[in-house]
């Protein structure tokens, strides 16, 4: 049975199925806006890349919020890391946290790499996750230790570069998108895009050590969740 459509689709020239599919392509696949325009054109859907951009801005965060509510409870072991990104020639830092399963908990774009920035990340994580982790794993940046002692002193803190490969690997899809988009244009744009991108990636992430049959099952379930989050029927 077709799910009720969100009133947010009202007064749009294209149906909800086209809009949600365009948004999925943009956030799930490393494509530029013009590439998404061409992929839709192959299907006979003539829409400009600027329209795709407007759809992504209007609907992306709402879809991500719905996805977050449907995903399993995150693990109790948090891996934290930061990576430098260049925005209009200025150095910024992308702070990221993932759990032991590789699911992204949150990201935060900041212009500093100090204890204040680390505290902002931890405060945001605690507020959004609603829980305190059992273990926090970071590299040897001293800012993490200072923030952790102030905000959650009872949590075990492990500092070793080799133990943090899980979150370091999680940076790779971001790097690919950064190249496709020819770098982010502002800190606001990077934060807004990646907040949606990471939730979509969480939904369609392939669990470790799964065979092809299990992956097909989990992917089918992910598309069901996507249909529910976007308010359309599965199988577009």
TrEMBL record:
One of its GO terms (molecular function) is DNA binding. Keywords: DNA recombination, DNA-binding, Transposition. One of its GO terms (biological process) is DNA recombination. Coiled coil: none annotated. InterPro entries: DDE_dom, IS_Transposase, RNaseH-like_sf, Transpos_IS6. Residues 157-178 are annotated as: Disordered. PANTHER family: BLL1675 PROTEIN. This is Transposase. It comes from Microvirga vignae. The lineage of its organism: Bacteria, Pseudomonadati, Pseudomonadota, Alphaproteobacteria, Hyphomicrobiales.
């Amino acid at each position: 049975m077709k799910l009720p459509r969100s009133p947010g689709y009202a007064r749009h020239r294209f149906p909800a199925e086209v809009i949600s599919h365009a948004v999925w392509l943009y956030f799930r696949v490393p494509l530029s806006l013009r590439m998404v325009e061409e992929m839709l054109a192959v299907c006979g859907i003539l829409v400009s890349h600027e329209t795709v951009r407007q759809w992504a801005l209007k609907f992306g965060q709402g879809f991500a919020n719905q996805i977050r509510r449907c995903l399993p409870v995150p693990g109790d072991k948090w891996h934290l890391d930061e990576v430098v990104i260049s925005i209009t020639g200025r150095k910024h830092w992308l702070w990221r946290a993932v759990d032991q399963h590789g699911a992204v908990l949150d990201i935060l774009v900041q212009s500093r790499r100090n204890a204040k920035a680390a505290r902002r990340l931890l405060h945001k994580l605690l507020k959004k996750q609603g829980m305190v982790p059992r273990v926090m794993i970071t590299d040897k940046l001293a800012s993490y230790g200072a923030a952790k002692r102030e905000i959650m002193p009872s949590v075990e803190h492990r500092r070793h570069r080799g133990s943090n490969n899980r979150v370091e690997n999680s940076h790779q899809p971001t790097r690919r998108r950064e190249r496709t988009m020819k770098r982010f244009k502002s800190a606001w744009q990077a934060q807004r895009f990646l907040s949606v991108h990471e939730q979509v990636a969480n939904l369609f992430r392939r669990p470790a050590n799964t065979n092809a049959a299990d992956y097909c099952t989990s992917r089918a379930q992910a598309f069901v969740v996507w249909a529910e989050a976007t308010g359309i029927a599965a199988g577009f």
